[in-house]
Design a protein that fits this description.
single chain; 444 residues; mainly alpha; 3 domains; two-stranded antiparallel sheet
């Protein structure tokens, strides 16, 4: 293949520049995996490599605000992803020499030795450029920001970028055990933010939260800065918006759990369990970070949320046995004058819908294991697991016993139900358990 004409390369370059960060990273990985690229694809790889390097530098320089421009972000102050790209374009046009120096700094960065002065200067320039709007590039960046929380909000975030950048590096330490020394450093950073702009204090914590894998953990940081306040006091401050936001998020996740469709398959079971898991983490964060009162502004609401969550989860857990009884149906036979026993019913074919329902609920059952203790439904979950495993084991043993007999009932249908049992064993236990059922079926 001949090299691509320059006109086509320009088209490719334009498309790559507009692609999301994740797409650029994926494309770079795919092109880098093959060392024998033809000239056309080799030229494309160079374009992607240049773009990926530029974005790494951009995200490094503008790291205090970059998470606020992440795709799909909806909570708090947020900006369309194109905002970051346009702001970076404006900076490159305004200060090409400083950007070139930032590229070198990013590639040689040593957290222990490197100084972020140049990065902070570029963030300050970006804030000034947004406010002045003197160039077309900055005007476009401001217009993009206005589609989100606004250019003024973004400029205020950039004003405190220097403090935020240093604070982000301390987050892992601050999220650990609270000590006087850690609290003092945090309060000093908070004081520095206040000195820059008193009305930017909530933005500081929002920027920190955007850098956390678990955003609700910002409550720990806020509580440390305020010496573990009561829920009523924190709710009355300008930082109360964080607590209200996470309480609303818990309610949204409770709705997901309450509306959980028991026929939605394994993916649906995992999604509902994930909602449970995050709701539990958020509730626990409130309880551990703040001085809650049962009569407090948030305390009352959290108590209700905890009860609602446990009740909803337990209702789904109680449905597990019924779902399995339909996926692996039994019929009652009399073994003696006073003895009845349930044996596999083989008078009808496997019902795929019932199998799917059992898979859905068993997936939910398994995926809630890490949430059960803190969520208050550990006993209900343990009971559901015990009943499900006992039903499964007895069912498999009874069908195998029938298949090994002199006159097995409906052997093809029996093996079909054994496959259902294997699928359910894989969900409630693991793949090895599923394979064991299949090996026993093959040997019968």
């Amino acid at each position: 293949m001949n090299p691509l004409p320059e006109a086509k390369l320009r088209i490719v370059r334009s498309l790559v520049e507009q692609a999301p960060d994740k797409a650029v990273a994926t494309l770079l990985t795919a092109l880098s995996a093959d060392s024998g690229l033809d000239p056309g694809l080799a030229a494309v790889r160079v374009i992607v490599e240049v773009e990926a390097r530029d974005r790494r530098t951009r995200n490094f320089v503008l790291s205090p605000v970059a998470p606020l421009c992440a795709p799909g972000r909806s909570a708090g102050s947020n900006f369309p992803p194109k905002t970051l790209a346009r702001l970076w374009k404006a900076l490159k046009a305004e200060s090409p020499d400083q950007i070139a120096a930032a590229v070198t700094l990013a590639e040689a960065w040593n957290p222990e030795e490197s100084r972020p002065d140049l990065l902070d200067l570029l963030c300050a320039q970006a804030a000034a450029g947004l406010r002045a709007g003197a160039t077309e590039a900055y005007a476009q960046a401001a217009a993009a920001a206005d589609e989100g929380a606004g250019a003024d909000t973004l400029a205020r975030c950039l004003d405190i970028a220097a403090v935020t950048r240093r604070s982000v590096t301390r987050l892992p330490v601050w999220l650990g055990r609270v000590t006087d020394e850690k609290a003092a450093l945090l309060r000093l950073a908070f004081k520095d933010v206040s000195a820059v702009s008193p009305d930017s204090e909530p933005l500081f914590f929002e920027m920190l939260a955007a850098n956390l894998a678990e955003p609700w953990r910002i409550l720990h940081i806020i509580a440390m800065a305020m010496a573990r306040p009561s829920d009523t006091y924190l709710a009355s401050t300008e930082l109360g918006v964080f607590g209200e936001g996470f309480l609303d998020d818990i309610d949204r996740r409770l709705e997901v759990v309450g509306r959980f469709n028991r026929d939605s398959g394994a993916a649906g079971g995992r999604a509902a369990a994930e909602a449970v898991h995050i709701a539990v983490l958020e509730i626990v964060e409130f309880e551990q970070s703040l001085n809650l009162s049962p009569e407090g502004v948030w305390g009352r609401r959290l108590i209700k949320q905890r009860r609602t969550l446990a009740a909803a989860v337990e209702a789904h857990l109680r449905a597990v046995d019924d779902a399995m009884s339909h996926a692996l149906p039994l019929q009652t036979v009399r073994l003696g004058p006073r003895t009845l026993k349930g044996i596999p019913r083989l008078t009808a074919d496997v019902d795929p819908k019932m199998t799917e329902r059992a898979v859905t609920l068993l997936t939910f059952l398994q995926e809630t294991r890490n949430s059960a203790g803190a969520g208050g439904f550990a006993s209900a979950r343990s009971k559901a697991v015990e009943i499900a495993e006992a039903r499964l084991d007895e069912y498999v043993d009874d069908i195998l016993h029938d298949l090994r007999g002199e006159e097995p009932r409906q052997p093809e249908r029996a093996r079909a139900f054994l496959e259902v049992a294997a699928v359910l064993a894989g969900v409630i236990r693991d793949d090895k358990a599923a394979q064991l059922v299949r090996r026993r079926a093959a040997a019968a």
